[in-house]
Amino acid sequence: MERTIDVSTNLSTQVAPDTIEFEINIIGTCDIRENCTAKYNVILKTMKEALEQNGLPSSILKNKSYSVSPHEVREYQKEDSDRYYCTHKKIEGYDFHASLSITQTLREGLLEKIWKSLSSCGEEVTFTLKYSVANKHAIKDKLSSDAIVTCREKADILAKAAGVKVIGLKDAHYTFEREDYGESLGARCARETVRVKDDAPIFNPVEIKISCYVGTTWDIELLPPDDLL
């Protein structure tokens, strides 16, 4: 008969963020498909020029995806007191959507420069800012290692009380939770939340909490009678 003991633990740590990540979206509508790409290129050029005007290289802006799709409009008709059904669909122009990003090491003044650059590019540009940690994998490795040690200590205590001893780790599984603190504001909202037109908000990033849950199964065997005394 297989003899095992299950032990789990939760460990967490808090680290100061060292990286900023901007996720940027450009969304617009044009009457014909060909105009979408032309309009997007104008906005993209504006963004790059804004970065350079704030002393930043435009190369930090990375393209992730770009797509164009028909702008569908649906017409509805009332069927009864509280129900409607679609009577007609028609295409009115085209929508374009581009996804871009900026990821940089956090340093004094950089976040404000990027914020001001993106906030000056018009209503079609929205963005999300979050803080992160560059060496999160090393932190997770250390956290999971510490969790295994803690599980072994718990297993030894439980095994001793049950009159058995731990002879080795049979299985372990990990679950991580990473809580990033960030700001989520569009360009329009960003402009409306600052007192001076060209100033960025004051940012106070909090520490990032990284949590690790570890569940373990340990092989055990009975203690010799003398060890039970």
Please indicate the percent range of residues in DSSP E strands (runs of 2 or more): over 45%
Q: What structural class should be given to the helix and strand makeup?
A: alpha+beta
| General shape | elongated
User: Percent range for helical residues?
Assistant: 25-40%
The biggest beta sheet is recorded as: 5 strands, antiparallel
SSE pattern: EEHEEHEHEEHE
Structural account:
The chain has about 230 residues and is of the alpha+beta class. The protein has helices at about 35-55, 110-120, 135-160, 185-190, and strands spanning about 5-15, 20-30, 60-80, 85-105, 125-130, 165-180, 180-185, 210-220. A five-stranded antiparallel sheet has the order 3-4-2-5-7. The chain has a three-stranded antiparallel sheet with strand order 1-8-6, covered by helices on one side. Helix 1 runs antiparallel to helix 2. The longest helix is centred in the middle third of the chain and has 26 residues, at about 135-160. Mean pLDDT is about 85; it is low at about 180-195.
SSE inventory with pairings:
Blueprint: E1 4-15, E2 19-30, H1 33-53, E3 62-78, E4 84-105, H2 110-119, E5 125-132, H3 136-161, E6 164-179, E7 182-186, H4 187-192, E8 208-222
Helix pairs in contact: 1-2
Outline of this structure?
The protein has four helices and eight strands. The protein is α+β, with helices and mostly antiparallel strands and 229 residues long.
Give me some keywords for this one.
229 residues; alpha+beta; five-stranded antiparallel β-sheet; three-stranded antiparallel β-sheet; 28% helix
